[in-house]
């Protein structure tokens, strides 16, 4: 049986600090958007000739309870449209089915900050008479998409500085600056849309983790600083929203089991027992970890094995190709 030499390379830098700060465990971006927070969604059918016969309903939404936001809005809009009866004499008017999504940012229970609305605002429709001799909205009137505002906000008490590093189809860009300034990815604190010093505002593409223009995924990080000297910080993966490193986190630990793991015998063969190497990784819960290997450090050639999610703070992977090499090295990186 071959003996494998194992090398652990931990790609996490930890800054020692005695300052206490509430670093968020995740950001509501990428896979975590929209967050599980409560939103107020209003759905409305507006008479474009005035308010005659306009109707509206609203409901409270959170992802954990209702699932996909667009699916829920489609359901509520169709329900409102199916029950809509125009005022007599206004059957031929132009109507606009529409919706909006608002959030509360400051803990006062008021839902006034817009997050999104429908993509066909301003496009009017006339009711059509169906086979049941009743008036209905044409199907295209209810086929609406969500348009998120250009900057999307989330609470971040104590935020001082923001740095965004993202890779796009057109290259890599960095935005780095004081919170509350245009360079800091929050709207100008003198502008009408500025939400306050304890609110993070990121561009729509960064929040959604993809380019709105063509849906191309973004990769990169958002780093938040919670002290003027930048010693209290958290770095988040744009794709997942997970905290991948911070001044308060211990380094990623990689624990390796040196006992070979027996692999299933290949079907229809009389081959000798096969063995691999079981690698156990422990680190921040919810983190994404890339495991790589190399059979020759002299060439600096590292190859990816797999990407693991530390759902409960740990994960295991069996390298079935380990026994094919007399020497194998492993390393792991957070959020790669």
Description:
- This protein is mostly beta strands and 336 residues long.
- It folds into 3 domains: 39-148, no CATH class; 151-246, no CATH class; 253-334, no CATH class.
- It contains 3 helices and 21 strands.
- A hairpin with a 5-residue loop joins β5 (128-129) and β6.
- The model is unreliable at 1-20 and 182-190 (pLDDT under 50).
Question: Main attributes?
Answer:
single chain, 336 residues, mainly beta, 5-stranded antiparallel β-sheet, 3 helices, 21 strands, 36% strand, elongated
List strands and helices in order, with pairings.
Layout (H helix, E strand, L loop, with lengths): L38 E9 L7 E7 L1 H4 L2 H14 L12 E9 L9 E6 L9 E2 L5 E2 L9 E3 L2 E5 L5 E8 L2 E8 L20 E5 H5 L10 E7 L7 E5 L5 E4 L6 E4 L4 E3 L10 E9 L5 E7 L8 E7 L4 E6 L9 E6 L2
Antiparallel strand pairs: 1-2, 1-3, 3-4, 4-7, 5-6, 8-11, 9-10, 9-12, 12-13, 13-14, 15-17, 16-17, 17-20, 18-19, 18-21
